[in-house]
């Protein structure tokens, strides 16, 4: 994605000296999720509420103009890091072309014939770029019906990253009028212990049969197994529903 496409969002979040980049980004994440009725993560100061409103509008416009499931927030996060606050924002995510290539390789085999969800898990999801690329490829190659059978799970120790993935997955579905089978995002350590594992979002499409709870033991065991897999394959590891 060209950086110029992200300029309206980056400009809205670049608040000069009043608030550091990671603070503005956190307010944006919190305010976006609050719009969906999810718990507030960080209270947005009154003096920046208009800027955060502009940022949310800019983000919606960017998502609408891009193909579904593009990683918008990862590049924004890294651009803000370059403007200061690297201690908070000093992370680097898989570039979209690489994530897209890996997704194409993984989706090279057909979805199983049964009617259950097919699950994909990234136990160190960052901005969610790998799972977003995977969803994009499923939609491109198998259409809305394939997307409706897809369950994506992501987890990250970083509270910003976990919320980035949750927002990007849900916002794309909302703005592009798509339905994914299931989206589950955690904040915490994929390997456990899971006493402080935070469920950022757990959403299923209306047509999907009841799924196990987010903190179901089987789900957590699968998450840990993905984290223990070989690092070259763990991010796009598929396992049957």
Characterization of the model:
The protein is α/β, with parallel strands linked by helices. The chain has two domains: 3-89, no CATH class; 96-240, Rossmann fold (3-Layer(aba) Sandwich). The protein has a five-stranded mixed β-sheet, sandwiched between helices. The chain is built from nine helices and five strands. Strand 2, helix 8 and strand 3 (182-187) form a beta-alpha-beta unit. Helix 6 (96-106) crosses helix 7 (129-148).
Terminal Cα span: 33 Å
Model regions low in confidence, pLDDT < 50 over at least 5 residues: 232-241
- Report the sheet-strand fraction: 5-15%
> CATH topology of the largest domain, what is it called?
Rossmann fold
Provide mean pLDDT, rounded. 86
Structure annotation, total helices? 9
- CATH class designation of the largest domain: Alpha Beta
The total of beta strands comes to 5
Spatial order of the strands forming the largest sheet = 4-3-2-1-5
Structural class: alpha/beta
Tell the overall outline.
globular
Radius of gyration: 17 Å
SSE string: HHHHHHEHEHEEHE
Task: Note the main sheet.
Answer: 5 strands, mixed
**How many domain modules?**
2
Q: Helical proportion?
A: 40-55%
* CATH architectural arrangement of the largest domain: 3-Layer(aba) Sandwich
Can you give me a brief rundown of this structure?
Helices cover about 50% and strands about 10% of the residues. It is α/β, with parallel strands linked by helices and about 240 residues long. Helix 7 links the parallel strand 1 (about 120) and strand 2 (about 150-155).
């Amino acid at each position: 994605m060209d950086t110029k496409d992200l300029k309206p969002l980056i400009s809205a979040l670049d608040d000069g000296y009043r608030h550091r980049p990671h603070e503005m980004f956190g307010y944006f994440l919190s305010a976006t999720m609050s719009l969906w009725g999810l718990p507030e993560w960080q209270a947005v100061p009154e003096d920046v509420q208009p800027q955060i409103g502009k940022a949310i509008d800019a983000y919606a416009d960017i998502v609408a103009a891009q193909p579904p499931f593009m990683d918008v927030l990862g590049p924004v996060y890294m651009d803000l890091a370059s403007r200061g606050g690297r201690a908070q924002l000093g992370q680097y995510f898989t570039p979209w072309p690489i994530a897209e290539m890996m997704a194409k390789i993984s989706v090279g085999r057909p979805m199983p014939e049964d009617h259950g969800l097919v699950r994909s898990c990234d136990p160190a999801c960052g901005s969610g770029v790998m799972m977003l690329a995977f969803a994009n490829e499923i939609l491109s190659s198998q259409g809305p019906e394939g997307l409706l059978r897809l369950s994506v799970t992501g987890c990250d120790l970083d509270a910003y990253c976990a919320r980035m993935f949750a927002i990007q997955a849900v916002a794309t579905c909302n703005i592009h009028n798509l339905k994914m089978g299931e989206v589950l995002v955690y904040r915490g350590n994929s390997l456990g212990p899971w006493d402080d594992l935070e469920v950022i979002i757990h959403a299923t499409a209306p047509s999907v049969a009841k799924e196990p709870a987010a903190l179901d033991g089987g789900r957590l065991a699968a998450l840990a197994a993905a984290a223990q897999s070989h690092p070259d394959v763990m991010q796009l590891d598929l396992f049957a529903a």
